[in-house]
Amino acid sequence: MLLALILSTMAMVAIVALRYLAISGAFAALTTRVRPGHHAGLGAQIRREIGWSLVSAAIYGIPAGVVAWGWDSLGWTRIYADWNAYPLWYLPLSVFLYLFAHDTWFYWTHRWMHEPRVFRVAHAVHHASRPPTAWAAMSFHPIEALTGAVVIPLLVFLVPIHIAMLGVVLTVMTVMGVTNHMGWEMFPRWLVRSPVGGWIITASHHQLHHERYQCNYGLYFRFWDRLCKTDRGLSKSFQP
Ligand SMILES: [Zn+2]
Ligand SMILES: [Zn+2]
């Protein structure tokens, strides 16, 4: 039993690390094609981004591995595998609930980490990337990584979700984490500038957080930023 727990956590750490390397690597390669020179002179920064991200991968992987083990061997969590366990309309709703809950947690912990004393300890690492690159997706101080690592492992105990929809949530989390930092907008202008785009966060929005610090704190949605009047719109440095 203990061996299975150790193997599960080791496997999850490896999965999170490899997923990071694969997706950040893919978008970093795409960046050198779309924005030649974007990475020029950032070699030392990128090495730091990868180093912090791999430490974060361990911090994210351990609770995920414990929960995966508990799901498999003890029936923990409200993750389900039977497509008929809940109505079909619940599938997209569950994805939205997870993203919204994660976004809410992120917005408020992120604002807290911009308190000057907390910032210096826990969040300066993430903002040391100037400008951030696709490798900065998980470039967090361990304290910040810990605040992010507990969200999904806690949610799976509270909100039912199909295992495939959990896969969708994790994919959105990883892809948006990478692309929001890569230094250019991959979504078309008609979407980013549309009424729907006014509620979702893409690179144009998060870039401005890295330029100005005291605004645009959200993760997936602009709901909290707009409600709390911390939304300053999109970065002017790269217009989609
Ligand atoms: Zn960021
Ligand atoms: Zn920040």
UniProtKB/TrEMBL annotation:
Transmembrane segments: 52-71, 83-101, 150-179
InterPro entries: Fatty_acid_hydroxylase (IPR006694), Sterol_Desaturase_Related (IPR050307)
Sequence ranges assigned to domain Fatty acid hydroxylase in this UniProt record: 96-230
A Pfam family this chain is assigned to: FA_hydroxylase
Keywords from the named record: Membrane, Transmembrane, Transmembrane helix
Record carries keyword Lipoprotein: no
Descriptive protein name: Sterol desaturase family protein
Phylogenetic lineage: Bacteria, Pseudomonadati, Pseudomonadota, Alphaproteobacteria, Sphingomonadales
